[in-house]
Design goal:
Elements: H1 4-33, H2 36-39, H3 52-98, H4 104-116, H5 121-130, H6 137-160, H7 166-173, H8 178-189, H9 191-206, H10 210-215, H11 239-274
Helix pairs in contact: 1-11, 3-6, 3-9, 3-11, 4-6, 6-9, 7-8, 9-11
């Protein structure tokens, strides 16, 4: 019985995953293939005709090609935010892991507070308005960096703590300056955790809905998640177009997870194994 327990647990996990992840995704695909009349029933029926292409064309061209604008905005927001997150979090994690200063404790407390305390939306809007950054893409980039920085710092600090200090000392003896030690010695060793951070943060920022809704108003500033509003209303929702839109914005994160799944697991476990 004990030998069969792992097999039973594996089958149960696969079954639960199938019902939780696969069936909803199949439902999205079926709805994207239907026309407006059949999609209005919102049932798990086989499409009577294959209308995916015409649904895609209408989704992309709606509101003066808003979907294209949204993909460009989301791509810029994701790439710039993740780049800043990687550099800033790695540098802060390096300092916290290498310097035993009296202010490490308060700083780590503030980092943990950033993970636990929910953001205050209205004061943040006032601050952005005062800085004339409200409703701008670069203001939204700063918001994403600020909200996601604590998790990235904790990730890097834990990994850097496993790297021997002798590497830093050897580089300093060879004449390396502090920035040289970080960028030429430490940063290349952070590749496993960097890949993990890039993938996790990219998917999170690309799929972010609430923050752009609060801080990035305007059709020209729309991100991919906000385009879902194009096809739903209180009285008349085009479910075929809505689910086609969902399918379009689901594919990029799905591909990222499929291609970088091993790197994510390796980065998450590398620090733990060394520690």
């Amino acid at each position: 019985m004990k030998k069969q327990l792992p097999l039973i647990s594996g089958i149960a996990a696969i079954t639960v995953s199938f019902f939780v992840f696969v069936i909803p995704f199949l439902f999205i695909i079926f709805m994207a293939f239907k026309d407006r009349r059949q999609a209005a029933s919102r049932d798990f029926s086989w499409p009577e005709g294959f209308h995916l292409w015409e649904n895609l064309v209408e989704v992309v061209t709606t509101r003066n090609w808003m979907m294209i604008t949204a993909f460009v905005n989301s791509s810029i927001l994701t790439v710039v935010s993740v780049t800043l997150l990687v550099v800033l979090a790695a540098m802060v994690g390096f300092v916290l892991a290498r310097r035993d200063a009296k202010w490490n404790g308060p700083i780590e407390f503030l980092i943990l507070a950033g993970l636990m305390i929910p953001p205050a939306v209205v004061p943040t809007i006032w601050l952005l308005q005062g800085l004339k950054l409200f409703g701008t893409l670069h203001g939204m980039i700063l918001i994403e960096v600020a909200y996601n920085l604590p998790f990235s710092i904790i990730l890097y600090r834990a990994f850097i703590a496993t790297i021997p200090r002798e590497l830093d000392e050897a580089a300093i003896i060879d004449g390396a300056r502090p920035l040289d030690v970080f960028f030429r010695v430490i940063l290349p060793l952070l590749w496993p955790v960097t890949v993990t951070n890039i993938v996790v943060q990219s998917v999170g920022i690309f799929n972010d809905f609430t923050n752009p809704l609060y801080y990035l108003p305007g059709a020209n500033n729309a991100t991919v998640q906000l385009t879902l509003y194009n096809f739903q209303s209180q009285f008349n929702t085009a479910y075929n177009l809505l689910f086609t839109n969902i399918l379009l914005i689901t594919i990029p994160p799905l591909l990222v997870f499929l291609f970088f799944n091993r790197q994510i697991v390796a980065g998450m476990t590398a620090g733990a194994v060394k520690g």
